[in-house]
Amino acid sequence: MNYNTRQKTEVLELLRKSTHALCAGDIIRQLPDVGSSSIYRILSSLEEESLVSSFVRNRRRFYSYTGSCSHHLHASCSSCGTLIHLDEEASRAITALLASRGLSINEDCMISIICPQCMKKEER
Ligand SMILES: [Zn+2]
Ligand SMILES: [Zn+2]
């Protein structure tokens, strides 16, 4: 380990508390004491450890804490980036429905949705 464990904990805590997926730039701005190259290193290490998962949107990579999330699927709002933890029942139903058609969800891949707040904004 060539980076500081405390910095790693700071990045993990920031992602854990955030209701939105954050891009590396957001994390760098919120943790100015941690250098940007450290942040990229920490993010890839957290991802390898399956504590964080990422997806790409508009050519930017966004990160979310999914460390205690092995039993359900995630959806993320394609408009505001809010991460939604689907309950286990819904996750099972979606997985089973796809499996019945010979399909499976890529573990890294979030289901892309529009959240209720953004839906309301669009209706206005
Ligand atoms: Zn979750
Ligand atoms: Zn939204």
Structure description:
It is a single chain. The protein is α+β, with helices and mostly antiparallel strands and 124 residues long. The chain folds into two domains: 5-65, Orthogonal Bundle (Arc Repressor Mutant, subunit A); 74-123, Dna Ligase, domain 1. The protein contains five helices and six strands; from the N terminus they run αβααββββαβα. The strands form two sheets. The protein has a three-stranded antiparallel beta sheet. It has a three-stranded mixed beta sheet with strand order 5-4-6, with no helix packed on it. β2 (52-57) and β3 form a beta hairpin. α1 crosses α3 (36-48) and α2 (24-30) packs across α3. The radius of gyration is 16 Å and the shape is globular. The protein starts with a helix and ends with a helix. The mean pLDDT is 87. Bound molecules: zinc ion (ZN) (2 copies). One zinc ion is lined by residues 66, 69, 72, 74, 85.
